[in-house]
Amino acid sequence: MAVLKTIVTVVFILICLVLTVIILLQEGKSAGLGAISGAADTYWGKNKGRSMEGILVKLTRIFVILFFILAIVLNIGSF
User: Fold this and answer.
1) Is residue 11 within 8 Å of 71, Cβ to Cβ?
2) Residues 26, 57: contact at Cβ < 8 Å?
């Protein structure tokens, strides 16, 4: 059982590091101020889900869900 907890802890730390890197790679929300002047109808505005920013948002959601699941699993074992 101790080996399993060690493995889950290592995976949890790796997820924390990956999540930190993914969040730091994302652009700030202030970069989207071009929408005020009508620049939202550009190619990148219409296909944001397929762009690098869209992929980073999807990866962030996935890793946050994994983060919370592993945090709960690790916390259950401490009772």
Assistant:
1) no
2) yes
